[in-house]
Prior knowledge:
CATH architecture: Up-down Bundle
Number of domains: 1
Order of helices and strands: HHHHHHHHHHHHHHH
CATH topology: Growth Hormone, Chain: A
Shape: globular
Oligomer: single chain
Radius of gyration: 20 Å
Structural class: mainly alpha
CATH class: Mainly Alpha
Number of strands: 0
Amino acid sequence: xxxxxxxxxxxxxxxxxxxxxxxxxxxxxxxxxxxxxxxxxxxxxxxxxxxxxxxxxxxxxxxxxxxxxxxxxxxxxxxxxxxxxxxxxxxxxxxxxxxxxxxxxxxxxxxxxxxxxxxxxxxxxxxxxxxxxxxxxxxxxxxxxxxxxxxxxxxxxxxxxxxxxxxxxxxxxxxxxxxxxxxxxxxxxxxxxxxxxxxxxxxxxxxxxxxxxxxxxxxxxxxxxxxxxxxxxxxxxxxxxxxxxxxxxxxxxxxxxxxxxxxxxxxxxxxxxxxxxxxxxxxxxxxxxxxxxxxxxxxxxxxxxxxxxxxxxxxxxxxxxxxxxxxxxxxxxxxxxxxxxxxxxxxxxxxxxxxxxxxxxxxxxxxxxxxxxxxxxxxxxxxxxxxxxxxxxxxxxxxxxxxxxx
Length: 406
């Protein structure tokens, strides 16, 4: 395959997007798995640790709102390269932080780059995929994020907590290299506003229009997607940030806690891939139903599980599968719910709603932990929020069960 063919290959574009999502997943979960080393170095209070966990996700919220709209206006490739380069650079700077305040600021800036990257990935993969593979390929890209999380958890197993800075160095150097590859190797393609041919006047919303995502019958579905993503990622990031600490509090060793975190991520990656395939076939509705009903049941089970690592690992695997597969479904839906000219801003707003939940989740964990709630009690406390998120998602799925993708 020559260079020109490579640059025009949709498969290569999607492969680069998968690698970008893997880097994002690695960087997002680096904070949680590095918490033991950071706590030993800086001695933060529980509230300070909660703010550190939430800092990058606050940046993600802002970055997703801006990045999705800018990708509609300026093009997917340009925004993706800039976003990946930014989160790589600030991840390296995170490794150089001298106190918890500097560390938190660096994580916020990292989040700005991360936030701009993912909605751009979702929109670009959707547009590069054949019609019968769009939802499956978006789910494929999303499934790379928990793989990245599993890799950083594995890295923590193979090194001492005192080497926590190396996680952020790796999480920065690799995406910086990938940004150069994408800039050199991938063809930019047409701007999203004109992708797929020139629109007929009056039929295509203005590129990047935020208001347009609520027009033409899209308002209820948009709001339901936001609520589903908010509570879904609130739960995911509370668990990603606090699960190792909670398991250690339940009597497990740090190695066992990291193993459960790996199981959570591997379960998520495999389930997101499986649900992506089901979304294109006759089992779409049963697959969605099983995924959304499983989440609250599994949160209840992990809060009541006996102190046996094998049981915890199995539940963590299944819980990661339910929660992360649901997010893959939401993002695939967001990519298909909007026409090309507003796909970036629509996906970005959906991602931003989820990111807002991911800001709140770790903070809730910190507040409950500071209030003296034990590990099992804390997990029970979040169960009503998980139920509410699943209910909103089931209503969304019911409303859209017979609709064709946009």
